[in-house]
Design goal:
Layout: H1 4-16, H2 23-41, H3 49-71
Helix pairs in contact: 1-2, 2-3
Length: about 70
Amino acid sequence: FSKHSGVISGFGKELIKSGEIPEEFHQYLIQAFKERQKADYDAKVDITKEKAREVLEKAKRFLEQSQNSLDKK
């Protein structure tokens, strides 16, 4: 993959559609990418502590799910 969007798309095609990982984790990845884009390109973006906590919690769940999937292989 040459772009982040390609990785996100491939993640959905390979791991979500196969049922290996629940759809909610694809949504987490999409949302995290959008938030990162805003932070990179919008100097006026305001990320609250609550939003940061939410993103970090989802990232933690994403990593746990990834580890569980790898452990099954």
